[in-house]
Amino acid sequence: MKKVPKKKVVFIIENDGLNTRLMADSFSKSHDFEFVYFANSASCLAALDQHPMAVVVDYDLNTMDETERDGAKILKEIKKLEHHTEVIFFSTHDNAKVATEMVKYGAYDYVVINDARFVRLEKVLNNVVDYLEAKRETFKYKVFTYSVIGAIVAWTLLTIVMFATGRWESKSGVFIEP
Fold first, then answer.
1. Cα separation, 161 vs 52, whole angstroms
2. Which of 27, 63, 121, 137 is deepest in the core (most CB within 10 A)?
3. Could you report the per-residue pLDDT of 150-170, keeping only the tens digit for each?
């Protein structure tokens, strides 16, 4: 039986109903991702225990709703609660200063809303998948490397102790009682 790969969960915080419907239509055929939509940051933050791979945040949430947090505050809260989750901002503002500031605070990327936004967003999400896979592989390599180094250090210390106590016969390389 062929194993079906698990879809990667992506949260999207968007309070513009039209944009949400456009995104849902655009991403409905995506077989790699499962999208969960939220109208505000509070409901998204409450659901972070589902450990999404990424959260896509409308940078302009607080321009339509004054009670809503601004983009930087949402980013900081997501990173505080779920630091492994990557945050991607999208906005109508093509402002390099804002984009740089969000990346400085820990955002993975900043996508400008234009005609190619959905294609760009899907590419960014695929890049997040590759990035997280590379991090996982790096972690496995580090664990293996540290394990090998630990074994070498332990063997070296054991050998030193055996020679120092006279319990090692150097000609045959076997342990002996003094």
1. 50
2. 121
3. 999 999 998 888 888 877 665
Task: Read off the pLDDT of residues 132-151 as tens digits, 9 standing for 90 and up.
Answer: 899 989 999 999 999 999 99
Phi, psi of 136 (to 5 degrees): -65, -45
d(CA 107, CA 30) in angstroms, rounded, equals 23
Q: Give strand pairing partners of 10.
A: 35, 54
Distance from the Cα of residue 84 to its chain's centroid: 4
- Phi and psi torsions of 58, nearest 5°: -75, 115
CATH code of the domain occupying 8-135: 3.40.50.2300
φ, ψ at 67 (rounded to 5°): -80, -10
Compute the C-alpha angle 70/73/76, nearest 5°: 150
Query: Phi first, then psi: what are they for 78, rounded to 5°?
Result: -60, -45
Q: What pTM value is reported for the model?
A: 0.75
What are the domain boundaries of the chain? 8-135, 136-175
